[in-house]
Design goal:
CATH superfamily of the largest domain: Peptidase M41
Distance between the termini: 59 Å
CATH class of the largest domain: Mainly Alpha
Strand content: 5-15%
Structural class: alpha/beta
Helix content: 40-55%
Number of helices: 21
Strand order of the largest sheet: 7-9-10-11-8-12
Length: 659
């Protein structure tokens, strides 16, 4: 069927005409205006140049008799007067001059005979009517006034669009007929769903709450890390309650014109009252709701006016009207306190990253339309993705599907899921980045040093994979995966991590007698952890359990402006000494582990140079027997099975890398 043919909508009996979309009205108006301007300019600047060279009738006849005219054009003006135009030769016959002469006698036969006798070519043009002249002069002005009427008068009447609708709200009304989202589509945030379930029940039956005198919160603030599903939760609330859902971004309020933001806030609430009960969702509310007056050079007046209008509107409407404001932000700490007080956003819902059970549920939702193999274990994948948000898990499933498609498979296998997880966590393998023999050997010993130190430190997280294939921005990596979700870190575990961080540099010094810049990231992380142990966690016996951290409040909030610290120079010197002591002791302990297990270090490095990638089972076999296990199949990205699979953590996986 061609594009110009009609097709019927299955949900409607009316035919739908396919074809190019109609020109927007504003674009059509601009086109008409351009044509009108062109015609006016043409009328003003294209007057006949021979009007200034009018000639008398007698002079014209003398030139005809003198054979200085070879051709004339007989025409009529709008009044019916006949005139002739043409070109006459100069006296010296070196050039020509255009002329125009009015003929006093209408249909002068003697003139025509004279012209013929002297060989003058005669051309005649039809008479111009008065109506034609009037149209030529008036039509451009009609077009101009028509465009002015269309742009200003019509657009002022049409409040939804046009040049006069700056102050109208840009909130979009999402209908529930298409792509309706319910709580079944949201997983991994059970506590947040329970908090919002009350909002749904209130929108469905407000009288149930009002008969006992209770009032629902006017606003619900969803806060959490990016990708945890705040916007999806708000849409699910609207889908469950089956009410109109207005959505707008915080940045849509502020424009270059003063007062537009406040006007849009007022109009948004007016639209909400007309469609009550409804939900108004403001995404990224920190763009307009930041604390007023930072104390440095004053605040942004337009943004403050918009915030003031939002505060007044939220305090002015009653929950009995059935309007509930749902807002989302990644930075609740920068919001104005007046916005968070009871009576405005009086309920704050924290959307945390999903736990182990939540990650498994999210993977099941995102893999419903993906052809998974029977061998794919989503529980295993969930265990290997601690700290992942819902958006990260959706990206992981998509990457696995792309990897399977790239290799021409019919189903997504477990190895695709593991490779996708490694790609999302640590970057894609750069096999084209070829290392020479010397650099490859140095990288192998560096990563083997990390692996040996981790293996002999029971407090460290288990080894997942050791590779010297460049991945992401690192030449090699020793990857770890937590056994379970963890919410706190003990001092012994932090000290074990410091020892593992130093494994690469210690191996370089032990084997080659020299150190390289490859351990700069390890040193940076070690220093950061050691300073946090001393200043924030109170894990130094010399300084005791006190907080000596610096004030890192954002400057734009008017806080943290002073660079002076809260402790003396002597205390600062003690902090430096303690940080140096912790890092040095960790390095010495790591060096002792590598010296005691030098044979394991050499064996692991030599096999790593040959194989390039080793998983935990192979590393474990090399540590115990000095060689690879027999008849081992190398599943790329195999996640180690450890006990306590059902426990949950919050830590992000770590890796030691050579930059």
């Amino acid at each position: 069927m061609s594009d110009n043919q009609q097709q019927k909508d299955p949900k409607s009996d009316k035919p739908n005409k396919k074809g190019p979309p109609p020109m927007p009205m504003r674009g059509l108006a601009i086109s008409f205006l351009a044509v009108a301007v062109f015609l006016v300019v043409l009328q003003l600047f294209t007057r006949s140049p021979d009007a200034a060279n009018e000639m008398s009738y007698s002079a014209f006849m003398k030139q005809v008799e003198g054979d200085r005219i070879s051709k004339v054009v007989l025409s009529y003006d709008s009044s019916g007067n006949q005139f002739a135009t043409g070109e006459s030769k100069d006296l010296n016959e070196t050039g020509t001059t255009k002329f125009k002469v009015y003929i006093p006698f209408r249909d002068d036969t003697m003139l025509q005979e004279t012209l013929k006798n002297h060989g003058v070519e005669i051309e005649s043009k039809p008479l111009k009517t008065a109506m034609t002249s009037i149209l030529i002069n008036i039509v451009p002005f009609i077009l101009i006034f028509g465009i002015i009427y269309f742009i200003f008068i019509r657009q002022m009447k049409n409040a939804g669009r046009g040049a006069m609708s700056f102050g109208k709200s840009r909130a979009k009304l999402l209908t529930q007929d298409k792509n309706k989202i319910t709580f079944k589509e949201v997983a991994g945030v059970d506590e947040a769903k329970e908090e919002l379930q009350e909002v749904v029940e209130f929108l469905k039956d407000p009288k149930q709450f009002q008969k006992l005198g209770g009032k629902m919160p006017k606003g619900v603030l969803l806060s959490g890390s990016p990708g945890t599903g705040k916007t999806l939760l708000a849409k699910a609330v609207a889908g469950e309650a089956d009410v109109p859902f207005f959505t707008i971004s915080g940045s849509d309020f502020v424009e270059m014109f003063v007062g537009i933001g406040a006007s849009r806030v007022r109009d948004m609430f007016e639209q909400g009252k007309k469609n009550a009960p409804c939900i108004i969702f403001i995404d990224e509310i920190d763009a307009v709701g930041r604390s007023r007056f930072s104390g440095i050079g004053g605040g942004h007046d337009e943004r403050e006016q918009t915030l003031n209008a939002l505060l007044v509107e939220m305090d002015g409407f009653d929950t009995q009207e059935g309007i509930i404001i749902v807002a989302a932000t990644n930075r609740p700490d920068v919001l104005d306190p007046a916005l968070l007080r009871p009576g405005r956003f009086d309920r704050q819902v924290v959307v945390d990253p999903p736990t182990l059970e939540g990650r498994e549920q999210i993977l099941k939702i995102h893999s419903r339309n993906v052809r998974l193999s029977d061998q794919v274990d989503l529980r295993k994948t969930a265990r290997g993705t601690p700290g992942f948000s819902g958006a990260d898990l959706a990206n992981l499933v998509n990457e696995a599907a792309l990897l399977a498609s790239r290799r021409g498979a019919e189903f997504v296998e477990q190895q695709d899921m593991e490779e996708a997880r490694d790609k999302v966590m640590w970057g894609r393998e750069r096999r084209s980045h070829v290392l020479d023999a010397e650099e490859k050997k140095l990288t192998a010993y560096h990563e083997a040093g990390h692996a040996v130190a981790m293996y002999h430190m029971p407090e460290c997280e288990p080894i997942h994979k050791v590779t010297i294939i460049p991945r992401g921005r690192a030449l090699g990596a020793t990857m770890q995966l937590p056994e379970k979700d963890r919410y706190t870190q003990s001092q012994k575990r932090l000290e074990a991590d410091l020892v593992a961080f130093m494994g690469g540099r210690a191996a370089e010094e032990l084997i080659f007698g020299d150190v390289t810049t490859g351990a700069h990231n390890d040193i940076e992380r070690s220093t950061m952890v050691a300073r946090a142990m001393v200043c924030e966690y109170g894990m130094s016996k010399k300084l005791g359990p006190q907080n000596l951290g610096s004030n890192n409040q954002p400057v734009f909030l008017g806080q943290g402006i002073s660079s002076s610290s809260d402790f003396s120079e002597q205390t600062a010197r003690l902090i430096d000494e303690e940080v140096r002591r912790i890092v040095t002791e960790s390095y010495d302990k790591c060096m002792q582990i590598l010296v005691d297990n030098k044979e394991q270090l050499i064996a692991l490095s030599e096999i790593l140079i040959e194989r390039e990638v080793l998983d935990f089972s192979e590393v474990d076999s090399i540590m115990k027997t000095g060689k690879l296990p027999e008849a081992v199949e190398q599943p790329v990205g195999e996640v180690i099975n450890t006990e306590e699979e059902s426990k949950e953590n919050k830590d992000t996986p770590s890796k030691s890398e050579e930059a």
